[in-house]
Specification:
The protein is an alpha/beta fold. The chain has 2 domains: about 160 residues, 3-Layer(aba) Sandwich (Rossmann fold), CATH 3.40.50.720; about 300 residues, 2-Layer Sandwich (Dihydrodipicolinate Reductase, domain 2), CATH 3.30.360.10. It contains 15 helices and 17 strands. The strands form 3 sheets. The chain has a 9-stranded mixed beta sheet, with helices on both faces. A hairpin with a 3-residue loop joins strand 14 and strand 15. Bound molecules: 6-O-phosphono-beta-D-glucopyranose. 6-O-phosphono-beta-D-glucopyranose (BG6) binds next to loops.
Length: about 525
């Protein structure tokens, strides 16, 4: 009894969000993402009592792997990557329901074998088990997997019921507008849109979800959330890591595809969208699409609104690190950007004239993701003139997405004393201080939501297309000019000078988070 209370999963009780009997099939089961994120996420859901009693995990991949070996690898992945250590009771329940099917991605017979395996699981269970197909492979096999899910009848399983087959698609969702359109066409030839869950793991982050709560569950922000009070918005997604061992992937991708088109644009959409009519997937995604479509096409070219750069050798945490062009697997003359910054204008009633600055890069001074809302300055009639006495900053509301998750507001305050002097101060709220720090990882929330059938935190097809529509002309331009205009920044710095100049031209400067 004590054990069942510790792990409600053992009783098959879902604490507050019930998923139906489910089999998660992971394509690309011997890949990095599966070991680092997916298996640990599933394990932690089990530990929190959020998996259904009839839960099954099936790995699928080209490499023949016996069930037992797949289980051993899964346990090793949990030990290495899970935020909580491997609990014998929870694993004893998950392990027997974990199996592996090997086969090619374009091999229809192998998909028939997969279908037979799923049927066998259902027979053992004695009731319908919803299939959740998780495509975590390189993008060149997305289409064959989707088509074979269609041809084998798996995609249509239980269609018309709430427990219909579902498909999760990992990034990259295309590499430009044409390929994203083609991928959507393939998906829609097999699945209905409501069966499809396109992942952007930033949407699974606690603080990103909290953005909606902060905006729409508090009455003080929304009246100010417009061009009358907001001067500019800055969205930063900075990383300390370099390309590491992912050179092969990154050379084909670059910062715009890897971070801006998806994660940063999603942060922008949630910040700038209109209040949705309801808190459901369609209402929220309708608003996100609307605001993405309202972004004006970028001004591209030498005097444009975009800066790209590569990191040069520099120092990270006191140690020398190589520049991008010296990294393993990178062409010596590579024209792939590791940093991008841009100024976007949203052409609607709320945001007309308010610049949205976006930046993201690898090997930057600090790992930090934040959204900063800079308010207009008050009229300069009272505390003006004497800058030595009146140190005033614009009010800034910032959402720290990671690390050190929280919210802060910069206010101007009187310094205690007999003379009136002012100084900006920071009012802060930190999640860890209030709620503790061992919160669920993004993938836990996303896998659970997909099992439950809640698409709110996933990208709809038209959203992906709207964002690619904005980025593709820029990618085409960069391709056409090669390395021309490529700026550079020292590893461990805050980015290239061109990026500072982009803001300075409008009297702005980047925050140092
Ligand atoms: C991924 C990118 O989508 O996001 C990586 O492909 C990047 O290049 C990662 O490092 C960053 O995610 P997080 O959650 O660590 O901020």
């Amino acid at each position: 009894m004590a054990q069942a209370q510790r792990h409600p999963f053992l009783d098959g009780l879902s604490k507050y969000r019930g998923a139906p009997p489910t089999v998660v099939v992971i394509f690309g089961a011997s890949g990095d993402l599966c070991a680092r994120k997916l298996i640990p996420a599933i394990y932690n859901l089990g530990m929190d009592g959020l998996l259904p009693a009839d839960f099954f995990l099936v790995g699928y991949g080209r490499k023949p792997i016996p069930d037992e070996e797949f289980r051993t690898d899964a346990a090793a992945a949990i030990k290495e990557f899970s935020r909580r250590s491997l609990d014998a009771d929870v694993w004893a329940r998950l392990a027997p329901n974990t199996s592996y099917v090997s086969g090619g991605y374009d091999d229809k017979a192998a998909f028939d074998r997969l279908a037979a395996h799923l049927a066998e699981i259902e027979q053992r269970t004695g009731r319908p088990v919803q299939p959740l197909f998780y495509i975590s492979t390189p993008p060149n096999v997305f289409a064959p997997i989707l088509l074979n899910l269609g041809a084998s009848g798996l995609a249509a399983k239980y269609l018309g019921t709430p427990h219909h087959a579902k498909v999760v698609i990992e990034k990259p969702f295309g590499k430009d507008l044409d390929s994203a359109l083609a991928l959507n066409t393939t998906i829609r030839s097999v699945f209905k849109e409501h069966q499809v869950y396109r992942i952007d793991h930033y949407l699974g982050k606690e603080t990103v979800q909290d953005l909606l709560v902060q905006r729409f569950a508090n009455s003080i922000f929304e009246p100010l959330w417009n061009r009358n009070f907001i001067d500019s918005v800055q969205i930063t997604v900075a990383e300390e890591v370099g390309v590491g061992t992912r050179g092969g992937y990154y050379e084909q991708s670059g910062c715009l595809r890897d971070m801006i088109q998806n994660h940063t644009m999603q942060l922008l959409a949630l910040t700038a969208m209109e209040p949705p009519g309801a808190l459901d997937a369609e209402a929220i995604r309708d608003e996100k699409v609307k605001v993405l479509k309202a972004i004006q096409p970028l001004t591209i070219g030498p005097a444009g609104e975009v800066v790209r750069a590569q990191y040069a050798a520099g120092m990270m945490a006191g140690k020398p690190v190589p520049g991008y062009l010296e990294e393993e697997g990178i062409a010596r003359q590579s024209a792939t950007e590791t940093y991008a910054a841009m100024r976007l204008s949203i052409n609607n009633w709320r945001w007309q004239g308010v610049p949205f600055y976006l930046r993201s890069g690898k090997r930057m001074a600090r790992r930090v993701s934040e959204i900063a809302i800079n308010f207009r300055r008050p009229p300069g009639t009272l505390f003006a003139g004497e800058t030595a006495r009146f140190d005033l900053a614009a009010n800034t509301l910032s959402f720290q997405i990671q690390p050190d998750e929280g919210l802060s507001l910069i206010l101007n305050t009187k310094i205690p004393g007999l003379e009136t002097r002012t100084q900006p101060v920071k009012m802060s709220f930190r999640y860890a201080a209030t709620f503790g720090s061992n919160t669920a990882e993004a993938y836990e929330r996303l896998v659970l939501d997909a099992m439950i059938g809640d698409g709110t935190l996933f990208i709809r097809g038209d959203e992906a297309e709207a964002s690619w529509k904005l980025c593709t002309p820029l990618l085409d331009y960069w391709r056409s000019v090669g390395r021309q205009g490529m700026d550079s920044y020292a590893a461990g710095s805050w980015g290239p000078p061109g990026s500072d100049a982009l803001l300075a031209s409008r009297g702005h400067h980047w925050r140092q988070p």
